[in-house]
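User: Just a sanity check before I run the rest of the batch. Below are the structure tokens for the first item. I only need the designed sequence back.
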């Protein structure tokens, strides 16, 4: 019985190690509060200049700068100034990091 328990224990140990190693990566990809609401208007990417900007095409820095400008009333908009005022700088950073494309990677 000892011989059969050892391979099982090794598999369980490897599985547990894999889950522990993956935990930070999963946490990093979890959507911050508000992100899914952003995608309601900004996920479609039509070739229409009057449509809301497609966030998948923008970098995190560009998104953060726009949200900060809306928040400080330096940029005009219909609903975005009101929405941006509801987020702290930290929340804006988290949203931008999650929604923006990484440098060099199309999203």
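Assistant: Here's the designed sequence for the first item:
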């Amino acid at each position: 019985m000892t011989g059969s328990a050892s391979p099982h224990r090794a598999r369980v140990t490897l599985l547990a190690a894999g889950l522990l190693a993956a935990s930070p990566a999963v946490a990093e990809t979890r959507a911050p509060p508000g992100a899914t609401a952003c995608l309601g208007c900004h996920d479609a990417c039509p070739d229409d200049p009057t449509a809301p900007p497609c966030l998948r095409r923008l970098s995190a820095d560009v998104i953060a700068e726009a949200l900060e400008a809306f928040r400080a009333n330096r940029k005009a908009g219909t609903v975005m100034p009101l929405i941006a005022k509801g987020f702290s700088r930290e929340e804006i950073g988290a949203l931008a990091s999650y929604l923006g494309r990484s440098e060099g990677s199309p999203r």
